[in-house]
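Exercise 7b. C-alpha cells:
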C-alpha cells in the first residue's frame, strides 16, 4: 500500500521542477554574471603597447624556381667598320707562293737577310754594290710591296750583312764595313721600325770580318759571329761597343749563329776542309767547345734550333756540290747526323728556318739552273725533304734568307733578275702554305 502512494508523489515533484526550469528567463544565473564582467572590461581604457621584441632569425632560403622563358631578341645593332683584309688564302688560281719585286737596283743586290719586326712585318737588309747598305720594310705580311729608305750606310766597298730584331724592338744589323783592306765588323742600330733612321759604328776594326751573322742572346744583347772564328758580344742594346773572343783559328769564310735552348750561343761555320760547330760556354761567349760535324769542304752555312731543341745546319758540300743538312743529337752539338737533301751544284747559298709545323725549311739556289728552291724537311732530323722550285729564272735565287712570318708562312728574300731587261732586283717570295708547294690543298 505505501509503495503505491510514493510513486505518484515523485512523479509530481519532477513535473514541478521541469515547469520551473522552463519558466526561468534567460540571462540569469552564472551566465548573466559573466556577461556583466565582459561589458565592464570593454569600457576600460587600453594601456600603452609594450616594446617590440627582437626579430627572429631569417629562415632558410627556398629552392630556386624554374627558369622562365627567354625574352624576345632585341634589334640588331649597327654594323661595325670592316677590318683590314687578311692574307690571301690558298686557291686553285694561286700557286704555293707569291713573288714580288721590292727594288730594281740596276746593280747587284746581294747578301740579303730578313727578320720579322715587332710590327709583324718583314725587315730586309741587303748590300747595293755601288750605293751601300740598304733596308726594305715590308708594307704587309706577304711583303708584296715595301718602303726602301735611302742607304743607311753609304758608299761602295761594303760586305755582307745579317739582321736581327733587338730587345728594344728595332733592327740590329751586322755587316762588313768599309776600311781599306781591313773590312772591319760594323753594326747599324735602327732608330724606328722601318729603319729610316739609324746609327752605325765599328765593333771590331782590326779584323777581316767576313761572313757575319747576328742573333740576340738570352741577356737581350747582340751576339755576332764572323770569320776568325770570332764572336762579339754587344755591351748595350744599340751595340755601341762589344767584347770579342777568338773561338777557333784558321780560315773561316762563313758563319751562322743562333741561341740554343740552354740560352747559350751555337755557331755553325765552315773551317778549312770541314763543317764545325762551336757551343758557347757562357752568355757572352768568351769561350766555346768545338766539334767537327762533317769532314768535307763547306760553303754557305746556316743554323737554326729545331722544335726538338737541337741545332739544324744547312750547307753545301763543295766536294759533291750537294745540299746537305746536319742535325745535332744533343744541345751542345757534340754529335750529329748528316743527310743529303738535293744534288747537282745546289745549296751554295742556303738559309734554314723552322716552320710553323715544327719542321725545317731551307731556301737555296740551284746554281745550274739559277732557280730559287725550297726544301721542306719530312722529319725533325731532316733525313729527307720535299724540294720545289719557287722562282725559275736565269741567275735568280742567289743570297736567299728565310724566316717565318706572323701568318705562320715562310718569307724569303733573294736576288732576282728581270727576265726581259736582265736587271738585277731585290725580290721576296711569300709561301701560301707551310710546305711552299704549288696548289697544295688538304682533303
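Sequence design result:
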Amino acid at each position: 500500500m505505501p509503495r503505491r502512494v510514493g510513486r505518484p508523489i515523485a512523479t509530481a515533484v519532477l513535473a514541478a521542477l521541469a515547469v520551473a526550469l522552463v519558466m526561468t528567463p534567460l540571462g540569469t544565473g552564472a551566465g548573466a554574471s559573466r556577461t556583466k564582467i565582459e561589458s565592464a572590461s570593454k569600457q576600460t581604457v587600453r594601456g600603452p603597447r609594450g616594446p617590440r621584441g627582437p626579430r627572429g632569425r631569417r629562415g632558410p632560403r627556398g629552392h630556386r624556381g624554374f627558369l622562365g622563358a627567354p625574352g624576345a631578341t632585341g634589334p640588331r645593332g649597327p654594323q661595325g667598320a670592316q677590318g683590314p683584309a687578311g692574307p690571301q688564302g690558298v686557291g686553285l688560281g694561286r700557286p704555293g707562293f707569291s713573288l714580288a719585286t721590292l727594288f730594281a737596283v740596276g746593280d747587284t743586290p746581294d747578301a740579303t737577310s730578313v727578320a720579322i719586326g715587332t710590327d709583324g712585318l718583314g725587315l730586309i737588309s741587303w748590300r747595293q754594290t755601288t750605293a751601300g747598305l740598304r733596308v726594305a720594310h715590308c708594307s704587309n705580311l706577304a711583303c708584296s710591296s715595301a718602303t726602301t729608305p735611302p742607304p743607311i750606310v753609304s758608299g761602295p766597298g761594303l760586305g755582307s750583312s745579317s739582321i736581327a730584331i733587338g730587345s728594344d724592338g728595332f733592327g740590329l744589323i751586322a755587316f762588313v764595313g768599309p776600311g781599306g783592306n781591313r773590312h772591319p765588323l760594323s753594326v747599324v742600330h735602327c732608330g724606328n721600325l722601318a729603319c729610316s733612321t739609324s746609327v752605325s759604328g765599328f765593333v771590331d776594326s782590326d779584323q777581316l770580318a767576313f761572313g757575319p751573322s747576328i742573333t740576340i742572346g738570352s741577356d737581350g744583347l747582340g751576339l755576332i759571329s764572323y770569320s776568325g772564328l770570332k764572336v762579339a758580344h754587344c755591351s748595350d742594346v744599340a751595340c755601341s761597343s762589344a767584347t770579342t773572343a777568338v773561338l777557333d783559328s784558321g780560315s773561316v769564310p762563313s758563319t751562322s749563329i743562333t741561341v740554343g735552348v740552354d740560352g747559350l750561343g751555337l755557331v755553325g761555320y765552315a773551317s778549312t776542309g770541314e763543317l764545325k760547330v762551336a757551343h758557347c760556354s757562357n752568355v757572352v761567349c768568351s769561350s766555346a767547345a768545338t766539334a767537327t760535324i762533317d769532314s768535307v769542304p763547306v760553303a754557305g752555312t746556316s743554323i737554326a734550333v729545331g722544335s726538338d731543341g737541337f741545332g739544324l745546319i744547312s750547307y753545301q758540300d763543295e766536294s759533291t756540290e750537294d745540299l746537305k743538312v746536319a742535325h745535332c743529337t744533343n744541345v751542345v752539338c757534340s754529335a750529329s747526323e748528316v743527310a743529303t737533301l738535293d744534288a747537282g751544284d745546289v745549296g751554295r747559298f742556303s738559309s734554314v728556318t723552322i716552320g710553323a709545323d715544327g719542321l725545317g725549311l731551307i731556301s737555296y739556289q740551284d746554281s745550274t739552273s739559277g732557280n730559287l728552291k725550297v726544301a721542306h724537311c719530312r722529319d725533325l732530323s731532316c733525313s729527307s725533304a720535299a724540294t720545289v722550285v719557287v722562282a725559275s729564272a736565269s741567275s735568280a735565287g742567289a743570297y736567299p734568307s728565310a724566316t717565318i712570318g706572323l701568318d705562320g708562312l715562310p718569307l724569303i728574300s733573294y736576288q732576282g733578275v728581270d727576265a726581259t731587261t736582265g736587271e738585277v732586283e731585290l725580290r721576296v717570295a711569300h709561301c701560301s702554305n707551310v710546305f711552299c708547294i704549288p696548289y697544295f690543298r688538304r682533303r
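Instructor comment: Confidence is low (pLDDT under 50) at residues 1-5, 29-35, 87-94. The CA atoms of residues 291 and 334 lie 6 Å apart.
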